[in-house]
Amino acid sequence: QVQLVESGGGLVQAGDSLRLSCAASGRTFSTTAMGWFRQAPGKEREFVAAFNWNGISTDYGDSVKGRFTISRDNAKSTAYLQMNSLKPEDTGVYYCAATQRRRGIPIMAPDMYDYWGQGTQVTVSS
Questions:
Q1: Residue 91: what are its φ and ψ, rounded to 5°?
Q2: Using CA atoms, how far apart are residues 7 and 22, in angstroms rounded to an integer?
Q3: Residue 55 above 80 pLDDT?
Q4: In this model, does residue 27 exceed pLDDT 90?
Q5: Average pLDDT of the residues of the chain
Q6: Distances, alpha carbon 63 to alpha carbons 60, 85, 90, in Å
Q7: Which of 10, 11, 52, 117 is most buried by its number of CB atoms within 10 A?
Q8: Is pLDDT at 110 greater than 80 in this prediction?
Q9: Distance CA 18, CA 117 (A)
Q10: Residue 24 and residue 3 in contact, taking contact as beta carbons nearer than 8 Å
């Protein structure tokens, strides 16, 4: 069982930066695939970023490429999402997710993740 707790959300202006954190419980974080998703009101959950089980491979949604960076600190069992040059369309609830599936590439499909955090709100004003 893995428990995830996100933090770092807030209200910012367009062009600002935020760093989200996802603290994971358990002793297998270093071999856990992690992903970030977001959901805006009235919209489906959208893939944002992920790294595969060993952290070597990462992938990003088209709308955030070049602006967001996913990373992990195995010593702290924490994943991060650095968000730069934020836009109003980045507004939404951001969720981190985890799975023990060992795929060579990052997992982009939300239904492939087994554990989810409670979400953290990010609001970007224009």
A1: -60, 135
A2: 7
A3: yes
A4: no
A5: 95
A6: 8, 12, 9
A7: 117
A8: yes
A9: 18
A10: yes
Supply the pLDDT for residue 26: 77
Question: Which residue in the block uniquely carries the two structure tokens 């959208």?
Answer: 46
Phi, psi of 100 (to 5 degrees): -90, 5
- Residue 54's nearest CA partner among 115, 91, 105 is 105
Closest CA to 55 of 28, 36, 74, 37: 74
Q: Which tokens go with 57?
A: 């491979």
d(CA 58, CA 102): 14
Q: What DSSP string runs through 16-65?
A: --EEEEEEE-SS-GGG-EEEEEEE-TTS--EEEEEE-TTSS-EEE-TTTT
Give CA 46 to chain center in angstroms: 11
**Residues forming beta bridges with residue 83, ordered by sequence position:** 18, 68
3 state DSSP class of 4: strand
Tokens describing residue 68:
């967001």
| Closest-CA residue to 89 (of 35, 61, 125) | 125
